[in-house]
Structures are given as C-alpha cells and as structure tokens.
Design brief:
Layout: H1 2-11, H2 17-69, E1 72-74, E2 81-83
Antiparallel strand pairs: 1-2
Length: about 90
Amino acid sequence: MKKVKEEKKADLKFIDSSELKTIKDRQEVVDKYLFEVGVIESRKHALLHELSEANKRSESYKEILMDKYGPINVNMVDGSYNPLEDGK
C-alpha cells in the first residue's frame, strides 16, 4: 500500500516555492479582508438592533407627549410646538 502512495506522490508536479509563497501571501490578504468584513457585519448587526431600540424609545415618548398635548409638531431647536390640523 505504501508503495502505491509513494508512486502517486512521485507523479505529482509542484509549482516553484516562490510561486507557492506568493499564492499563500495573497490568500492571507484575502482572508484578512474577509475577517474584517465579518467583524464589520457583526458590528452593523449590533448597531441595527440598538437603532431599533432607540426608535422604539422615541416612538414611546412621542405617545406620552401626544397624550399630554395632543397631536403636535415640535420645534427641535427651542421646544415650541404647533398643534397639527386633523392630527396629521
């Protein structure tokens, strides 16, 4: 059995060691970028969840203000408000 494997290995052809190094170096760069993309995607996922929670808190507070003042449009600079016509 060993002899068969040795014969098959003897039939193998190899690229130059510098060519193999170049391939490995380039693949390492690709792998690095793929890893970084994964990290960024993971952070993006977390940020989207945080954004969703912030939107929920904002909408919840809008409901509190609407219960107190009715439908209004608030000036975000000075806090003044105008009632909305027909609740729009």
